[in-house]
Amino acid sequence: MIAWLADEVCPSELNEARQRDPVLARCRASKLEAPGRMERLIGSANRIADERFCEPCRGCLLTSLPCCAASLLVQRMNNDGVPGTDVGEHGLQPWAVGVFADA
Asked: What residue spans define the domains of the chain?
C-alpha cells in the first residue's frame, strides 16, 4: 500500500488530507480494512516520494557544488572585479580552495 501510494498518489497530490481518499477508495475496492494509523502510512509514502523526487538533483549538487563554491570564493576574494585564480594575494588560503575542490 505504501509503495502504491508513493508511486501513484503522492507525486501528484501534496495535501495529506486529500491523499487519504484514494487510500480509502483502494481499500474499499479491494475489500480490505482501512489502516488504523493512516498518518503513518501517508507519512512513509510521502518520504519515499520526496526522496525519489530529490534524488536526481542531489547527485548533481554533490558533484558540482564543491567546485562552484571554490570558484565563488576565488571570485569574491578578487576585489578588482576581475575573476581570477590568485587566491593568496587577497587573503584566501590555497588550502581552503583545495578543501572544496577535493570534496
From this structure: 2-102
